[in-house]
Specification:
Bound molecules: zinc ion
Number of helices: 6
Number of strands: 2
Strand content: 5-15%
Largest sheet: 2 strands, antiparallel
């Protein structure tokens, strides 16, 4: 019996639990997303949109860890735009695969046709090559010409 060794449990953080505000905060922290923003999305569905749209908007937020699909910045509640890759007018749906979450500035840039507007937001966003490629894919789908 002298050879039996015991070890303390080391992998579970004691602060993580469901029973204290601090413990609950730790759980949320570990999800890696801003749960306040997520709750905001749940409480503020876009008016005149379907339940499918509302659900997918929240799912996308979780899947992208709360970040803009183009710039990768953390999305703040009031600037979140849920864009239809193929517009509803062109037969697009509210399906998950047809939606993407971006910042308001990126959303304006996806739909912008005026050179002045395009230049203004390009300057503001300072997109790199990869981000610009992603943006142009969305612009093409939206029926706006690619930005050179
Ligand atoms: Zn849009």
């Amino acid at each position: 019996m002298g050879y039996v060794q015991t070890r303390n449990a080391q992998h579970k953080k004691k602060t993580v639990n469901r029973y204290t505000p601090e413990g609950w905060a730790e759980i949320h922290k570990n999800l890696g997303i801003n749960t306040d923003t997520m709750i905001w999305l749940m409480q503020n569905p876009v008016l005149d949109k379907t339940i499918e749209f509302a659900d997918n908007r929240i799912s996308l937020f979780a899947a992208l860890y709360g970040r803009c699909a183009i710039t990768g910045v953390d999305l703040m509640p009031y600037e979140i735009r849920c864009h239809h890759k193929v517009t509803l007018e062109n037969g697009g749906t509210d399906e998950y695969s047809n939606l993407v979450l971006v910042t308001e500035a990126v959303h304006i840039l996806i739909h912008a046709t005026l050179e002045e507007t395009i230049q203004k937001y390009l300057k503001e966003l300072q997109l790199n090559k990869k981000q610009l490629e992603k943006l142009n894919k969305l612009r093409k789908l939206a029926g706006t010409p690619a930005i050179a």
